[in-house]
Design goal:
CATH architecture of the largest domain: 3-Layer(aba) Sandwich
Function: Extracellular metalloprotease that contributes to pathogenicity.
Order of helices and strands: EHEEHEHHEEEHHEHHEEHEHHEH
Strand order of the largest sheet: 5-6-8-7-9-12-10-11
Signal peptide: 1-18
Number of strands: 12
Subcellular location: Secreted
CATH superfamily of the largest domain: Zn peptidases
Bound molecules: zinc ion
Cofactor: Zn(2+)
Distance between the termini: 33 Å
Family: Belongs to the peptidase M14 family.
Length: 427
Amino acid sequence: MKAVAAALGLIALPLAAAKVSYKGYQAIHIDTADDLAHQGVAKALKGLNYVNLGCGGESDHSGFDIAVAPDSLSAFKKLGLESKIVREDIGADIDAEGDITPYVSMRKDNGSGALPDIAYFDSYHDFEGHLQFLKDLSAAFPDNSEIFSAGDSVEGRPLQGIHIWGSGGAGSKPAIIWHATVHAREWITAPTVEYMAYKLIEGYQNGDETPKATLDNYDFYIIPVVNPDGFVYTQTEDRMWRKNRQERDGARCVGTDVNRNWPHKWDVDGGSSPDPCAETYRGEEPGDTPENAALRNHTQAVGEANGIKFYVDWHSFSQLILLPYGYSCSAEADNIDQQMKLAGGVAEAIKGVNGLNFAYGPTCETIYQTAGGSNDWVFDIAGAELAWAFELRPQGGGSGGFAIPPDNIVPSGEENWAGMLNLFAAF
Ligand SMILES: [Zn+2]
């Protein structure tokens, strides 16, 4: 799946008055050999009631997955496209995610500096729960962490993060920056980075070698939910919502893809969409979402202070480690050999935990062209040494896609933490 894939056929569902039901929606993988084939498919799908689930090739990442509504299934079959059903009922997958568990505070012993209860990772939580968990985490490491906000979303929610440092004191070392949940429906990403933040602090407090050395040498800035409005919307209205919740004059559809909005190579043809109804809508102007402005200003400030060693934008799903560049398949990062070597080590370490395969390589070659993506901006403009995007478990829509049961959270955290430890040891 290549250039046009990101720009075509990504029509969002109309706004629904009540919570959207995905009962009976089938996830279908469509094979597309090349751009031309993909364009044909996108045209053929016009008029059908479906949601684009993105690039979902089970092994070779060719083609893409869509979720087709029950009332459009027979029309889809009549198209005779080369495709296969990978998931029978997305509504059932969403049910299997379980209830959103309220989290007030699960600290074992308020005030004593104890880490929050690890049972937090047994279920999915609402936005307030994520805010509180991060505060509890910081309270457990009071001399070496602080809560910050990079800025506010369209609807005024904070892009809250935790800043964690080691023996050098706050803000004295090059940065490691992690962002998650820019795409609202990618629920596994926030608890995965929160789990790793937990492990970093726990490891440091235990005197474990790699967490200790890494935190003494780098300042961590971790924002688990960078698209809070979209995230809240997935829990109250539409589980498969991807974009932010920005309304625009004259536009029929709501929402901009904040990860097509970064002001660098923003309008490269084929890597995003100028259509406000598309899932990859890039915005009217480069960087014109409040969320992007907040993330950009924070990242720039941190980079200017002490440099950026490593940036990750955490996504799901497909099990991939994506390196610069997204905007072009011919442009090559100057340190691509080093980045590939390190990514290979990370993939090996991830596999060693639960046996999952994570493919890796430059974004454009590995999945498709993306314009205005975070890692290109952070690499070229903010000058990060390593600027990656991860696509977490599962590998394909056949394993549940965006909606996977909460018993995936701890394994996802464990395998990616092993990957990070491998990387940190190689710094
Ligand atoms: Zn994503």
